[in-house]
Amino acid sequence: MEKNTENFLRREPSIEDKSDEEIFQNYMEDLELLPEDFDKKILDIESRSAKFAKWAKEHNVSSEIYSLEPEQEFQEKTKSVKGRAENIPFQNEAFDLVISNCSIPNELSGKNPKTLKEKVRSSLIEMMRVVKPGGEIRLGRVLYKSQQERGKIIDDVLNELCEKYDAEIEKISQPLADIYKYDANHKPVKLLAQVYFIKIRKPIKKNKL
């Protein structure tokens, strides 16, 4: 699927003003989703209004996408569930695919390094717990800001997953060096970052979590 690079570079992180279809297309691109992925039971973490799941269900793409958000109550129609990444309210090995787009660990960027590392570790361990053996975790548009400790923290946690759970990690660099974030006044602020798409594959052999 070909990216519109100019729009991608200037895309605002908040999705509240985007249509459900735009959100769906962003997910498809950022998480490299394929048609066969929609045969799987999917958990969307930090889904932000469940727009991805909503569009997929309304267009008969999938009715098995669950959306996890800190501020929302359970809704049967959209399979929306209240909860946080570091304490996912689902049983072990409940999903074939766990995804988070533009959220984990980007939403934790304001934390101090010690807190950030623990939040990222807790979140990824929880994702490993709820994904089935042979399943995947996909994290889209993870930003490694230049001259900051966050990139090292993320890599340290990924290395821990490799060692503890024998997970297979694939970190795919995106050819985008300059992107925009938005300040409190909704004005674009240019920042230097490297963008990565991260895949974490849980081994078929079960490990005690």
What would you say about this model in short?
This protein is an alpha/beta fold. The chain has helices at residues 5-9, 20-30, 51-58, 113-130, 150-165, and strands at 42-45, 65-69, 80-82, 95-101, 131-145, 168-174, 178-182, 188-201.
- Based on DSSP secondary structure assignment, what is the total number of beta strands? 8
Average pLDDT taken over every residue: 80
Helix content: 25-40%
Number of helices: 5
CATH architecture: 3-Layer(aba) Sandwich
Q: How would you name the CATH homologous superfamily?
A: Vaccinia Virus protein VP39
SS-derived structural category: alpha/beta
Outline the low-pLDDT stretches. 1-15
Strand content: 25-35%
User: Biggest sheet, open or closed, and with what strands and sense?
Assistant: 8 strands, mixed
Radius of gyration: 16 Å
CATH class term: Alpha Beta
Secondary-structure element order, N to C:
HHEHEEEHEHEEE
